Amino acid sequence: MCGIVGVLGDHEVAPLLVEALKRLEYRGYDSAGIATVNNGRLDRRRAVGKLVNLSDLLVHEPLAGKAGIGHTRWATHGAATVVNAHPHKAGPVAVVHNGIIENFRELREELAAAGYAQESQTDTETVALLVHQAMEGGATPATAARQTLKRLHGAFALCFLFDGEDDLLIAARKGSPLAIGHGDGEMFVGSDAIALASMTDRITYLEEGDWAVITRKGAEIFDEHDRRANRAETRIQIDATRIEKAGYKHFMAKEIAEQPVVLADGLRHYSRSGTLHLPAGVDFTGVDRIVLVACGTASYACHVAKYWFESLAGLPCDIDIASEFRYREPPLSPKQWAVFVSQSGETADTLAALRYAKEKVARVVSVVNVPTSSIARESDLTLPIMAGVEVGVASTKAFTSQLMVLALMALKAGVDRGRLDAAALAGHLAALHALPGLMNHALGQSGEIAKLAEELARAQDILFLGRGLMYPMALEGALKLKEISYIHAEGYASGELKHGPIALIDAQVPVIVLAPRDALFDKTVSNMQEVMARHGKVLLISDAAGVAEAGPGTWATLTMPAVDPIFAPILYAIPAQLLAYHTAIAKGTDVDQPRNLAKSVTVE
Ligand code: M6R
């Protein structure tokens, strides 16, 4: 999604703005731009495509000035063109924006009728024009911005820069996060702390509805009712924002490889000496139902967790994707919990679903990677997954860390509901603590997977099959593959195959079967035979016992270490991720920033 940066510096800001935008690249974007005020004059440069295009443009047409704003745009309204790229400028104001102004069409018509024509197709230019109109009516920049904010519906983070004002930024937040950074005689604005990490570690997060008048002396923050608001300044750990490939070719490769360590650290944090150390609020006594809500990969983590809550704790568990949950208006009870799972903690649909559930349930719980995120801050209780910054658009270590936290929660529910005694709990925890070692073994298959990927890269369609706990893993495997290799892939429950998808099977369609040797293995093997009988090309991913038992006829097999079947999804995530990664490499796609995708989806 779009990235915002603003700097009131004590030296030239263009290089700082580009550097900060680079740190936001991971969010996904398709054009970029900056604006500065130099000798009182506001000017801007914008370019389509990667940031290098903007840097090249700045070499030929430099922008001087010690005050500026910058933006990476992920197109929503209007194609990725220079005209639609931010900053948008109208009269004396330039603005960068993250989010969507839902009423921009009405506003644009009203502005056009008043003689303020728009040159781009964006909702953002409408904001600039409203401020311009107010300033032509005599308003100061701050008053014009404040009046404009009141007219906007939707979700947004905004940062304004003004002609003739080289010591002024105005920032506003409603629905999309925005942080203010404090320096020595310098001030900064960023859509997240990562953007600002090379400039400062002193951060103030704006709250919902806040807007701020920022000069080099500091920031005056106002709440949604325009009252002065005190927002705490926090120190962020720069280490936590470090985004380096550490010798890997891609962030995704690094993040896949980090999983054993990340998982081991997380497990140590939440469970030691054969017992659980979850926050005190994680007490399922009296809870009669739970609903898990998320988007994309996080929703597949919820899907796996449903099996855990039901089998380990006997706790009825509903799951839903946030974009459906929020509008379906499901009945919720005061005896249930609603759990929201999100890597970024800023996903617009998940946040809206959380707001729907608030006040209707006993407790709103979030499982997030970013503890300062909106979803974390609006929850009654947060369990951070502590995966570290995840840069690759394809979620990997966040997924397995979400699974880890959800597994521990399900175990706690089992204890609280009298389903698990101390010995059973210790047994399950031992199985979880064995996973990092097993994941290391699975990572050792990377070379073999790369060879299989050469062949998979030639396919047009790929199916993933799994049963029980492996069904959501089939969905996740397919999502991962399609996101970064652009090959059409679908995941199915193995038992559903003959109810339709089997019509797709022929010698051209690889079918990837995820099947550890568990209680459902024989049934999955029967489904696999049905595929092979129709010349389907099966890649079986199982353990040694499973591979031996499945017999001949497969195109290929991948042997995973034997694992406690309950927690097998955490291990089987690794081959699914590596298959996607190596297939994308074989196809030559942009692994870390695949086309059309954004890391943090802050619009509906
Ligand atoms: O930040 P979130 O976990 O809320 O993001 C949810 C999805 O957008 C995300 O998991 C997406 O599906 C990933 N690109 C999957 O790899």
From TrEMBL:
<comment type="function">
    <text>Catalyzes the first step in hexosamine metabolism, converting fructose-6P into glucosamine-6P using glutamine as a nitrogen source.</text>
</comment>
<protein>
    <recommendedName>
        <fullName>Glutamine--fructose-6-phosphate aminotransferase [isomerizing]</fullName>
        <ecNumber>2.6.1.16</ecNumber>
    </recommendedName>
</protein>
<feature type="domain" description="SIS">
    <location>
        <begin position="280"/>
        <end position="419"/>
    </location>
</feature>
<dbReference type="InterPro" id="IPR005855">
    <property type="entry name" value="GFAT"/>
</dbReference>
<dbReference type="InterPro" id="IPR017932">
    <property type="entry name" value="GATase_2_dom"/>
</dbReference>
<keyword id="KW-0677">Repeat</keyword>
<dbReference type="Pfam" id="PF01380">
    <property type="entry name" value="SIS"/>
</dbReference>
<dbReference type="Pfam" id="PF13522">
    <property type="entry name" value="GATase_6"/>
</dbReference>
<feature type="domain" description="Glutamine amidotransferase type-2">
    <location>
        <begin position="2"/>
        <end position="217"/>
    </location>
</feature>
<dbReference type="GO" id="GO:0004360">
    <property type="term" value="F:glutamine-fructose-6-phosphate transaminase (isomerizing) activity"/>
</dbReference>
<keyword id="KW-0963">Cytoplasm</keyword>
<dbReference type="InterPro" id="IPR029055">
    <property type="entry name" value="Ntn_hydrolases_N"/>
</dbReference>
<dbReference type="InterPro" id="IPR047084">
    <property type="entry name" value="GFAT_N"/>
</dbReference>
<keyword id="KW-0032">Aminotransferase</keyword>
<dbReference type="InterPro" id="IPR035490">
    <property type="entry name" value="GlmS/FrlB_SIS"/>
</dbReference>
<dbReference type="InterPro" id="IPR035466">
    <property type="entry name" value="GlmS/AgaS_SIS"/>
</dbReference>
<keyword id="KW-0808">Transferase</keyword>
<feature type="active site" description="For Fru-6P isomerization activity">
    <location>
        <position position="599"/>
    </location>
</feature>
<dbReference type="InterPro" id="IPR046348">
    <property type="entry name" value="SIS_dom_sf"/>
</dbReference>
<feature type="domain" description="SIS">
    <location>
        <begin position="452"/>
        <end position="594"/>
    </location>
</feature>
<dbReference type="InterPro" id="IPR001347">
    <property type="entry name" value="SIS_dom"/>
</dbReference>
<comment type="subunit">
    <text>Homodimer.</text>
</comment>
<feature type="active site" description="Nucleophile; for GATase activity">
    <location>
        <position position="2"/>
    </location>
</feature>
<keyword id="KW-0315">Glutamine amidotransferase</keyword>
